[in-house]
Amino acid sequence: MIELKCHKGFGPKVEGEALVTSDDFSARYDLDRINGVFSRPAHKLHGQSYDGKILVFNTAKGGVASAWMLHEMKSRGITPKAIIFNAANTILVQGAALAGLPMVDRFEDGDVTALIQSGDHVTVDPEQGLVTITNRS
Amino acid sequence: MKLSEKERAMLAGEMGPARQWAIEHQKQVGGMFDAEDMVAVSQAHMMADPESLGEAGVAFVEQFAELSVLERKVAIPMITDPRGVDLSYYDPLGQTEEMANLERRFVAACEKLGIMMTDTCINYQTIMPPVLGDHVAYGDTGVVIYSNSVCGARSNFEGGPSALAAGLTGRTPRYGLHLDKHRQATKRYRVTEQPGELTDWGVLGATIGKQAGSYWEVPVIEGIESVPTSDEIKHFGAAMASYGSTPLFHIVGITPECHSLKDVGGEKLAAETITSEDISALRAPFGAKGEKVDVVVFAAPQLSLVEMQQVAGLCRDRRRHQDTALIVCTAPSVYADAQRMRYNDAIEAFGGKVLQGTCFYQQYAREIGEANGWKRLLSNSTKIVNILGGYGYRPALASMEDCIASAVAGEIVQ
């Protein structure tokens, strides 16, 4: 078990499988939201499904539309379980707050996209500011 | 977070459920960014097209529209970003009745809240530009970067829900660009070649945005020798925000918070030179000379009246190729002026279509591309070619003049 301390976020405590990239994230530019996959060819997760995953990115970028999109994705049940950033931007924070989607950022031990690996089983506890990797030590 | 008496009353639900949701939302967002308190804002601007809202987003706003007048009216002047459906022209684009109905429902709900349906991403050119030091809650990255950088206003990127919250409470959490410390330069760039027409400005902005690369970076730019026009700096900022998610830049001797490098702490930073190789590298994926073009688009940002005059001038006495469409997006207020001045007539005689109150990438771009068989898209907007790659298009970039020449030829002329 590896414990990673971060800035406190919001949303309920969740656990699931991590999907990690050093790339950035925009719900508007990067996703096919109907099929739940990364659709922008230049994105490092192109072709992968995000449904039910705990997504780990460097930061968020792009347009403000993502603020509504997480709420819309959640209403159709095709959504990540939580989103983790090295540094969130305003839009994704606002969008996650509307959607009630757990979100945390700013890790004490450095680059979270290197600390967590795709396929890791992780628990995200936004209230405590704590992410736990349960399949490794 | 420190809350005033009025804010605590809103939180307790004393001013109705809409304001209660709004202040709770702001508390949550402010907490994530360590905001100490709220700051009063003079205007809110909401990005909320039906494609991103979906049924869920429309229903969310409709629940507030059902409240009493006292509980539902916004507290400050609140305006809107482009809509997703031009209700006077959607069927021919391949947009469905379902899309139009979502739009109609959302517009009706907004009107009940007292929101002005300006439907524009160039409100700084058409509605009420903010002034130096003005705290505002704007959506649309292009609006925010222009207002912060060129007007000296203070706004974060406020997504639709947060802009709505700000409209309802008349304030926003004091974090990010509302604070002096986040307006100081963090990256310094030196430009050696002067940008010419609008697309050059867009490409330069995109190049800097891509290098700066985060919401928390503030580029300061040296070497711009003459004062750009509002349209030029509009394309520069919109592209920078699109590529880098950056909400603020300074240009030494030009933008209002940066008379000298020292004003923004730029003298402490090492300068990086933007080379002609950097510019060429940014353009490279969007060159497609000689290829058949399906649709030419002028949008993102919507066209100013001056741009409408320029496009109309290029269209006059020419006709588009039968297999190449031309779409022009502008604000409803500009559309009305362009109608009066017969710019719309010139564009439509060419075979183009002027849409009012929409912006191409915010109007179900994927679906209208599929409905019309549009793959190869040409635009003079560096912002739109960045976005539409993710929407099933193969975007290419050219100047306004070359875009029109390409629409005539049916293939990309450069």
Keywords:
A: 137 residues, alpha/beta, Glucose Oxidase, domain 1, 7-stranded mixed barrel, two-stranded antiparallel ribbon, 4 helices, 9 strands, globular, B: 414 residues, Aconitase, domain 3, 3 domains, 4-stranded parallel beta sheet, 17 helices, 42% helix
Largest Cβ-defined interface: A-B, 41 and 40 residues
CATH architecture assignment of the largest domain in chain B = 2-Layer Sandwich
Oligomer: heterodimer
The assigned structural class of chain A equals alpha/beta
Cα gyration radius of chain A (Å)? 13 Å
Determine the CATH topology of the largest domain in chain B: Aconitase, domain 3
Estimate percent helicity of chain B: 40-55%
Query: What value does the average pLDDT of chain B take?
Result: 97
| Number of strand segments of chain B | 14
CATH domain topology of chain A: Glucose Oxidase, domain 1
Query: In CATH's first tier, which class of chain A applies?
Result: Alpha Beta
Low-confidence stretches of chain B: none
- Count up the domains of chain B: 3
Largest sheet of chain B: 5 strands, parallel
3D shape of chain A = globular
Shape of chain B: globular
- What is the CATH C-level name of the largest domain in chain B? Alpha Beta
- Find the CATH superfamily of chain A: Phosphohistidine domain
Strand order of the largest sheet of chain B: 12-11-10-13-14
Summarize the structure in words.
The complex is a heterodimer of chains A (137) and B (414). With 137 residues, chain A is an alpha/beta fold. Chain A has one domain (2-133): Phosphohistidine domain (Glucose Oxidase, domain 1, 3-Layer(bba) Sandwich). Chain A has four helices and nine strands, in the order E-E-H-E-E-E-H-E-H-E-H-E-E. In chain A, helix 2 (66-75) packs parallel to helix 3 (90-99). The longest helix of chain A is centred in the middle third of the chain and has 10 residues, at 66-75. The mean pLDDT of chain B is 97. Chain B has 17 helices and 14 strands. Chain B has a five-stranded parallel β-sheet with strand order 12-11-10-13-14, sandwiched between helices. Chain B has a four-stranded parallel β-sheet with strand order 8-7-6-9. Chain B is globular. Chain B folds into three domains: 5-180, Aconitase, domain 3 (2-Layer Sandwich); 184-284, no CATH class; 287-409, Aconitase, domain 3, CATH 3.30.499.10. Chain B starts with a helix and ends in a 5-residue tail after the last helix. In chain B, 56% of the residues are buried. At the A-B interface, strand 1, helix 1, helix 2 and helix 3 of A face helix 2, helix 3 and helix 8 of B.
